[in-house]
Amino acid sequence: YDIGDANGFLRFFRPILLNAPDITSVAFSDENGNELLLYRDQDGAWLERATNPEKKPGLARLISWTHDGKRIGERTFSVDYDARTRPWFKLAASIDENERKVLWTEPFVFRSTGDPGISAVVTWAAKGRRHHLATDLRFIELSKFTSALSAGKNGFAAIINDSGHVIGLPKDERFSDSQGIKSYVLKSVDEIGAPILAEGYRQWKSLRPQNDRLFNFNINGTEWLGVFTKKQLGEQVWWVGTFAPEADFLPSLSSHAPLFSALIILVLIFAWFIAHFVAGKFAKPLEELESQVSSYTSELELREAEALESVKQLEANAKTRMDFLARISHEIRTPMNVITGFSYLGAQTTSSEKKSEYLEKISGAAVRVAAIVEDLLNVSRMEIGKLRIEHQPFNLNDTLSYVEKIVSFKAEEKNLKLEVHRVPSLLNRVSGDALRLSQVIVNLVSNAIKFTDEGSVTVYTNVIDFNEDEGTCRLQFVVADTGVGIPESDFDKVFKPFSQFGSVKNQYAGVGLGLSICRQLVEMMNGTISFESKVGVGSRFMFEIPLRVLDEEITLHNESKIQLSGLRVLVVDDHEANLQVAGSVLRSVDCFAEFARDGKEAVEILEKRPLDFDIVLMDIQMPNLNGIDATREIRDRLQLEHIVIIALTAYVSQEDRVRCFNAGMDDFLAKPIIPETFLGAIQRWTELFQLTQDSPNRNDSLRPVDPLSS
User: Which 8-state DSSP code applies to residue 165?
Assistant: First the structure.
């Protein structure tokens, strides 16, 4: 335990003290005297005293707990105490730290309770420092036991240490309560006023003390029998003495011999019983405590080794994360520099040609920032299991064409040959997650282009398995390049997040997330991904996924010019820049756009003019009334079911989507606004609800398609 871990110290030792009532306290100290002391007061409450003579001399912190271990309070007080002056500390400091055994002090009066007793201590080394654990064993309970014993009618028992001090008092009215015991225990045999014990002890000493040897002595004309049994606790020697008068067992001289034999047996039984009690009452609990402490120490050492290993791993992870953050900073600052720089230049120039050039560069940089943010979000979603794989019909060759369109300009910039081979028409119509599939291929192709300075990048597809009866297939997608290649020593890092590798890792920009995302997306689609590479020759990344083959034709979105002229849109957002961007994009396709700065204003506008709008673009996080509550107002209170409400927000988690749809929204778009995606979503809803600009009743301007109306 940490010396400051008061809670952990109580949790570990409270059960031990409850099961060993003669152990009054436990002290835990390091080699500098910093100590935690746990003991109970007369009411059974637990008290925990902490002292630090080096940093806070003369002060102690006392924490109190209920009998069942609930914390009551804490206070600080002055105290004249230093653990380093206590007998148990001096004893522990005097031995080798590797000597794992219980050591016993000479008997003394405890400072914490004023009880007479003895301390036992064990010592060990951990984390480069010595630690001591000490327990106090009080003699009061022992004397209560010995003072209640009778050997025959008038016999008694007592325990005396090797220096002649009584630690277990004999039967006497003076020793019937705790206060009487405290007054006499630890005094010499002569000082306690027990003449028979004193004479018996003197006679036994004169006979050169022997263990378990019966002897007799006479006092005031009465014959007594006695026996001393030796008990050794560490270096401490205790003698358990049992005494009985012969007359208690000898009613007539005629039966003297057999009764004398019986007396011997009885006295020896008493002596054994008392000695056994001492061993059970004191030695056994301490042996168990030593065993528990030894076990705990071994566990500490194991935990320490595990902790050191964890620290090494954490340090390695921290370094990886710091490298990652540095790369993220670089990757974001680079396009942001383009955006701010060319925005400034665009404001300065009057040349339309220059403005167009600057805007093109700004747009490319913004797309790069958006891609980095999306990668980070995808990693977070996958880590917490919130990214979902969809199963929707799509055209596989159209997806490959989309990939080619996205990455072709990057290949053209480096004068690389880019080839994207299509699949046979039989396998063109499939069901799966087109977005995630295209994301994997785009990432792999972008990586290939980045690490290829000359030559080509090729994408082709192999049919691994095709079951026409079940309508399933397993396709292999391959992205091959003639780039720099990956050293074999870095193969194990390829799919790890935040990793870059090879001697060229600082030559090529990148965050280090692309391949990790690819692996996780492929596995989420029940596929596998692998690669082969040779430095100076190039790399081939291959992944296989299962897809369901569809018989029916798939009607795909027409990518011709978007036609939204006359559509009326209410844009709700608390940021003026977002309103300006959305309004400008809408007006570029001849839409009518009106603005509300929060959900409350939007509800008020729609309440006054419920027929004037076809679509509402709703932000989520806004003052006064957020987008979720505003949507509920529109649907529940205003009963405006004809208006399409589309979330347009930077909150993009699965929970956010669910909240939006549960509130009554029809669609969900994530910021930043990509004009093609933005307008494409709006057009899908106009086609679905068949916008009729010439309708005299604008309430029906957007209405669901009746599949039976043809």
Answer: B
Residues in Cβ contact with 432 at an 8 Å cutoff, skipping those fewer than 6 apart: 390, 391, 392, 394, 525, 545, 547, 548
Residue found by looking up tokens 């932000």 in the block:
619
Contact 105, 91 (CB under 8 A): yes
Q: Report CA-CA distances (Å) from 173 to 170, 180, 362.
A: 10, 9, 101
- State both tokens at 448: 């290939």
Q: Which residues contact 454 (CB under 8 A, 6 or more apart)?
A: 415, 416, 482
| Predicted pLDDT of residue 359 | 81
Pick the more confident residue, 343 or 33: 33
pTM of the predicted model, to two decimals?
0.41
**DSSP letter (8 states) at residue 558:** P
Cα distances (Å, whole numbers) of residue 338 to 17, 332, 342, 372: 71, 10, 6, 15
Digit-coded pLDDT (tens) for 522-551: 998 999 999 999 998 999 999 999 998 887
Span 186-200, mean pLDDT?
92
Strands (E) across 41-177 are located at 46-52, 56-65, 71-78, 103-104, 108-109, 116-126, 129-138, 156-161, 166-168
Question: Which of 166, 171, 142 has its CA nearest to residue 154?
Answer: 171
Closest Cα partner for 65 from 81, 82, 48, 49? Answer: 48
What are the DSSP E strand ranges found in 142-235?
Answer: 156-161, 166-168, 215-219, 222-233
